[in-house]
Amino acid sequence: MSARAGRLGIGIIGAGHVGPILGAALAGAGHAIIGISAVSEESRDRAEAILPSVPILEIPAIIERSELVILAVPDAELSALVDGLAATSTWRPGQLVMHTAAGFGTAVLAPAQALGAIPLAIHPAMDFTGTSIDIGRLHETWFAVTAPAPVQPIGQALVVEMGGEPVIIADEDRAAYAEAIEIATAFSRSIVSQATGILSDIGVEHPGGFLSSLVRSSVDNALRETSRPEAIEPLDFDADDR
């Protein structure tokens, strides 16, 4: 990993659906997970299930001991967390600080960077369950990487180590990127929920399983079409199409 090749001591702030999974993937690549923060009972249970040998620590202790800090917290909490830790001079010079929020680039990490930390914004384009099934799914997932040019190879290397595929997204494009992610996620959930509800109303048992192959194949076909723009035409249905 360039100048930081080899084993990193990694701390994770946030034991929601994302943080423990990325930690497990990086541990599988040979890095040492030195600690994870978890507040609620649910998050503590998740951390212990996904990272059973990793201690649950307070945030200052995690930052003090880590070469890479992963901020896997809700988007609305990210800025205040970074600012608060900067106000107490908790960030360390030369430390990698990575957040996982789709809509933010590295600007949100400016207070940490001012204290010498190295900013990374890495978002996996995946809908997480917070269970071990996600670890395998990382191997078919693209990750958005936003970082200063000299640091981009580090971000890309971390993604590859997690089993994913990196794509560079410019800071100014993160808002548009986040919008695309939200549209795809919300649309998929809404359509599946509506369709399974209709099937359930007419007495079809296990409607989710019934639609599984159809939904997966339809989405795969739609995604395949994006690689052939010339094949995409406006929809124009008439009676003969039905």
UniProtKB/TrEMBL annotation:
<dbReference type="InterPro" id="IPR036291">
    <property type="entry name" value="NAD(P)-bd_dom_sf"/>
</dbReference>
<feature type="domain" description="DUF2520">
    <location>
        <begin position="142"/>
        <end position="226"/>
    </location>
</feature>
<feature type="domain" description="Putative oxidoreductase/dehydrogenase Rossmann-like">
    <location>
        <begin position="4"/>
        <end position="124"/>
    </location>
</feature>
<protein>
    <submittedName>
        <fullName>DUF2520 domain-containing protein</fullName>
    </submittedName>
</protein>
<dbReference type="Pfam" id="PF10727">
    <property type="entry name" value="Rossmann-like"/>
</dbReference>
<dbReference type="InterPro" id="IPR019665">
    <property type="entry name" value="OxRdtase/DH_put_Rossmann_dom"/>
</dbReference>
<dbReference type="InterPro" id="IPR018931">
    <property type="entry name" value="DUF2520"/>
</dbReference>
<dbReference type="Pfam" id="PF10728">
    <property type="entry name" value="DUF2520"/>
</dbReference>
